[in-house]
Amino acid sequence: MPAPAAGPAYAAVNPAYPKSWWMIAFSCDVKKNQVVPLRVLERDLVLWRDGNGVVHCQAGHCPHLGAHFGYGGSVVDNTLRCGFHGWQFDAEGRVHSQPGPDAPRKNACLPSYRVVEKHGALFLWNGAGEPDIDFPDFLSFLSKIGATPDDVTFHHHRWFLPFPAKWFGENLCDGMHFAIAHDTGAWGDTIIHAETATTMEMENAIHERRPWLGAENIARRFVRREVVNLLTPVSDNVMSTCWGGSIHLVRFAGRPRILGTIIACWLPVDADTHYVMDITLVPKVKVPVVGKPIEKLTGFVAGLGNWSTAIQDAGLMMHRREPENPPYSKEDRGLIRFRRLWDSRIESQYQLEGDNIRSNGLRAGIRVRGRENAPDTTHRADSNGTPKVMEEDA
Fold first, then answer.
1. 319-348 confidence digits (pLDDT tens)
2. Are 190 and 394 in contact, with CB atoms under 8 Å apart?
3. Whole-angstrom distance between the N-terminal and C-terminal Cα of the chain?
4. Total structural domains in the chain?
5. Which helix (H) or strand (E) covers residue 283, if one does?
6. Region annotation Disordered: residue ranges (predicted)?
7. Longest C-alpha distance within the chain, in Å?
């Protein structure tokens, strides 16, 4: 009996970023028999959907003479065809055929990347070989509220922002920022509920909270020109479950429900730009004729609210310059733990020297167990502003 054929030899897109799942596009972006160019994780890629509807992700440039498949390339007989010299590559990156009488080259290979299509989105695994993180079960919380996946619709939003993705993604582990930057309370901190080598579950607690729809807060939103922000009420602590540093499930702590739950990813384009990728969960309206329009309107309104929240952060992020060895406070413990998770998922030792753009490392004073080039301590300031050692589990 012949041995089963080997599967694709999947590659890592960019080992300077965490080995994890990344939301890279939406299903509607790639039609059947279409090639779409994509710039993510500082690399040029293409997505293409074969005649059977299966999406593939491969390197953007032809290994022959470097033409970009996304500009003039096509899908022919379930292969990716280069528009320059007509070389065709199968889904595993092998040369399938090329024009002329010669046999196809055997030593040319197009790097291929693992991609999963789920919830109307495409998720890329940035790593070689088999993932060490199962694809997240984002909908497992539904059983706790007496719902099923049939009760959910998915609404997709995407925004381009001119600053590093990591800065935005780590905000979900920074409870103080939820209180101050988003003007929801006097102060905040982060509680770590569960943690493994690949995941974290956090609750961002907001203290001395202001009533979201109270007269004072509404007036503040008018003064700050943030009226749209009222569409996404932050009236409870914000929960975040993170897989690998890249993918987050965001929901409210005290009132778990479908509406108000988001699957989010901050996707690097280049070192200093990124996409905010957002799947907003909306309850299915099981009413003939009007159900679908109500769902779409709800998703649209939720997207406006999500955008207004992102804009509150964007102005701060665009002008940010973090110092070396920041004087962390006790309320930064969630941020520190997240930074350790992020760095632990990066396979490039060189990158862990840290620039606070792709990683944290030495520059941010973050210790990752088992990494020889990581510093021995993290620091925070004492009451006089003098840095001192922060306890290991802070």
1. 988 888 899 999 999 999 999 999 999 887
2. no
3. 57
4. 3
5. strand 273-283
6. 368-394
7. 78
Domain hosting residue 378, numbered range: 330-389
In a domain, 104, yes or no: yes
Q: Which of these, 295, 11, 364, 272, lies nearest to 152 by C-alpha position?
A: 295
Pair 191, 337 in one domain: no
Distance of alpha carbon 347 from alpha carbon 42, whole angstroms: 16
Report pTM: 0.88
Query: How far is residue 42's CA from residue 45's CA, in Å, rounded to a whole number?
Result: 10
Residue 273: which CATH number?
3.30.530.20
- Using one digit for the tens of pLDDT, what is the confidence trace for 263-300? 999 999 999 999 999 999 999 998 988 989 999 999 99
Helix (H) or strand (E) holding 40: strand 35-40
Alpha-carbon Rg for the chain in angstroms = 23
CB atoms within 10 A of CB 161: 21
- CA distances, 295 to each of 41, 152, 245, 252, 289 (Å): 33, 10, 30, 20, 11
Which residue type occupies 187? W
Q: How far apart are CA 394 and CA 29, in angstroms?
A: 43
263, two tokens: 């699957």
In a domain, 347, yes or no: yes
Say if 63 falls within a structural domain.
yes
Q: In what order do the strands lie in the sheet with 79-81?
A: 74-76, 79-81, 88-89, 95-97
92 and 207 in a single domain? The answer is no
Residue 77 pLDDT > 70: yes
* Rounded Cα distance, 206 and 235, in Å: 9
Residue 370: predicted pLDDT: 61
Q: Are residues 281 and 369 in the same domain?
A: no
Q: Where are the beta strands (DSSP E) in 63-213?
A: 74-76, 79-81, 88-89, 95-97, 112-113, 115-118, 121-125, 152-161, 187-195, 199-207
Does residue 343 sit within a domain?
yes
Burial class (CB in 10 A: 0-12, 13-18, 19+), 388: exposed
Is there a single domain that holds both residue 110 and residue 233?
Answer: no
Residues 96 and 48 occupy one common structural domain: yes
Token pair 């962390």 in the structure block, residue: 328
* pLDDT tens-place string over residues 151-182: 999 999 999 999 999 999 999 999 999 888 88
Q: Output the six-digit token pair for 391.
A: 């306890």
